[in-house]
Structure formats: structure tokens, C-alpha cells
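Tutorial, part two.
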Amino acid sequence: MIRTEATSAGSPSVRPFGGIQVTQTKPSSAQEFLEQAEVLHSEVTDLRRDTGNLRRFGVDTRLGELQAESAKRAPSQLLAELSDAGLAWRDIARILGVSVPAIQKWRHGANMSPPNRAGLAKLHSLIRLATKYLVDHPASWLEMPVAEGSDLTGIDLLSDDRFDVVLALLWPGSNGPEAVLDELLPGWRRRSPSSEFDTYVAHDGQVSIRLAKGGDTADNP
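Running the prediction step on this input gives:
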């Protein structure tokens, strides 16, 4: 809601959200009123965009800080905490591009390659960030379709290494998730629903399973 207050000169002072004061002269005609309204609308639109960009930068920066912290911890601890947060082993394996048996080995102290360890730390950091600032029970949120009429889920996006899209969807702003997807993931509407599984060879050489990805936007390794 925009509040107006009189100034000493008798012209209205407009205080948009956040208390930003914009002093204007009183319109002398309907045309002038519409022109001033258009200027204000443009300024608010620019402010909303700048605020969104600033917030994305802050979230990305914080994710990097948390990832650096998580990377120093034992992988078995990170896996245990991801499980406690509600993530299934199959989903963790799919996001990291490995097999479930590989996850089980890491749980018991087996060595990880640097890329896998970095990927695990990034996933762990995302869940920490989402839990603290963005959404309750992020694991269940990741299993939900990201937009009405789509079968695309957060798990699908993370398995394609689209952490940027997931972070943007966690706080889509006033435009909604469809606008976020249109901006960051063109073609997402062409995705075909699918509930079948397929098999693939994971990065560790083990054969594993995952949900089949429909549509021409899916990249199957």
C-alpha cells in the first residue's frame, strides 16, 4: 500500500514500500496523472528487478560459503544429515550422478573423488540454506512439481546441476515459478510427463536407475 503525506509546499509525498520518499507535484490533468503513474510503475518495476538480483547474489554467495564449510566435514556426516533432512538415498545418488551402492560405501567411510565430494558439499549446503532461510522441509519440496501442469521437480533440476534454478524457485518473487522457469529454463513447458525408470552407468562405473526424463529438454548422461 502506498501512503501519501503532505509536504510543506502542499504537494504530495509518496512513500512506497520500504519508506522511499518520492516528491511529486499534484497532477493538473488526467493525462498528467497517468504519466506520473507510469513513471512510478517503471521505477517500482526496476526496483523489484534490482532487489531480486541483489537477493540472488546474496543467496549464491551464502551458498558458496556454506559449501566451503561442508567440504571440510566428513562425507559420512553430510550424508547422515541429508538423510535426516528427508532425502532418499536414490535421490542423493541421482543428484550426484552415482549409484546407490556408491552412496552406501561413502556412508561407511570409503574415499570420494574431489568432484563427488564437492557435489555432496554443494547439495548439503543447499539443504542447509533452504531450511534456515527459505522453506520448511526442503526435501519434500524438492519432490514436488515446480509448476502447475508440469512433472518437473527440484530433484530433476538438481540432477541436471541446475542449482541456480532451484535457488530462484525457492524465492520466485511476485512473478511466480513460471516466470522464473521461462527466464532460466526455456523450453521447460515442452517436457513430457513420465513415471518410468531407466538405467544408466553412473560416474563410478556402477549401473543405477533413475526416473526417465521425457521431452527434448532433458539431458541424459
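The longest strand covers residues 197-201. In part three we will examine how such features are distributed along the chain.
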